[in-house]
Amino acid sequence: ERLPELLRRMPKAELHIHIEGSLEPELIFALAQRNGVALPYASVEDLRKAYAFTNLQSFLDIYYAGASVLLKEQDFYDMAWAYFERAAADNVAHAEIFFDPQTHTARGVAMETVINGLHRACVEAGPKLGVSAALILCFLRHLSEEDAFATLEQALPFRDQFIGVGLDSSELGHPPEKFARVFARCRELGLHRVAHAGEEGPPAYVWSALDVLKVERIDHGVQSAKDPALMQRLAQDRIPLTVCPLSNLKLCVVPSLAQHNLGALLDAGLVATVNSDDPAYFGGYMNENFLQTFAATGLAARQAWQLAANSFEASFLDAAAKRAHQ
Ligand code: ADE
Ligand code: ZN
């Protein structure tokens, strides 16, 4: 079998997808019209032209602007459903989906509206599309820990509709330890914990995500390769990294896909996975990430199988469900 067919066909789990980052320009414009929201862009093409990023922050500014069209429960459902259709087409069998409630509650959208819309799509994706799904609530790290605590409080009435918490947004200047207390509380509540670390930030942020926040996975983590002791820790404890190659390329974390360190992370024995991050902004969903990365780096079928196995191992599925995917 040709490698591209294997990459497309193999069942995989997606563990690093921001649902607001799956909002395609066409849907942004459709929702803006439906909700009477004015956009600072004249057309879909005009908006797409703004997708020329130099770093994480240059992306986040546009990403939060795009999310401003989401107001009603149906908007959140429609966004998630569009993602699930793409995921199913890429043979994604399981998805653990980030959402950023503070982006919405700050605009007066109720937590209930956000979670109910997303959760309804997650529930339907299993029977209708063959994609099992769960939600992970992310705290915005450029905001205060107090704000994160208030967000957790607002979400707790919906505790059974999300499986864990994450930490995202502007990394530099906002180290994980800023959120030590709220993550400790989430651990007491039995929530899973993940954090973006080592995307643009230093290995020290990966260490504190592990040792202070006690996260079970690291999102991105590609800067870990600069610290041999950290690499050893990640390998020994089998801490997964949810790597996002096209994101790293578009946000200038790497100069080219050919220079991406995914292969080196696998060679070091790490539980690395491939994910799309914000596919509407970075030029591709899961299979596009696999295809372009394999074409550029020369990874082969052996690594494809390893990445697929890693994606299920790294998931928060229970042991029986993981076995069913082996
Ligand atoms: N929010 C959405 N995508 C993100 C990324 N790649 N890093 C940090 N925060 C994000
Ligand atoms: Zn991300």
UniProtKB/TrEMBL annotation:
Binding site for Zn(2+): H16, H18, H196, D277
Alphabetically ordered keywords of this record: Hydrolase, Metal-binding, Nucleotide metabolism, Zinc
Database matches in Pfam families: A_deaminase (PF00962)
Class in the EC hierarchy, top level: hydrolase
Binding-site positions, substrate: D278
GO biological process, one term: adenine catabolic process
Site annotation Important for catalytic activity: residues: H220
Catalytically driven reaction(s): adenine + H2O + H(+) = hypoxanthine + NH4(+)
Co-factor(s): Zn(2+)
Cofactor note: Binds 1 zinc ion per subunit.
Domain Adenosine deaminase per the UniProt entry, residue ranges: 11-326
A GO MF label: adenine deaminase activity
Gene3D superfamilies: Metal-dependent hydrolases
EC code: 3.5.4.2
Catalytic residues, chain numbering: E199 (proton donor)
GO cellular component: cytosol
Family listed: Belongs to the metallo-dependent hydrolases superfamily. Adenosine and AMP deaminases family. Adenine deaminase type 2 subfamily.
NCBIfam families with a match to the protein in the record: aden_deam, PRK09358.1-6
Purpose: Catalyzes the hydrolytic deamination of adenine to hypoxanthine. Plays an important role in the purine salvage pathway and in nitrogen catabolism.
Protein name: Adenine deaminase
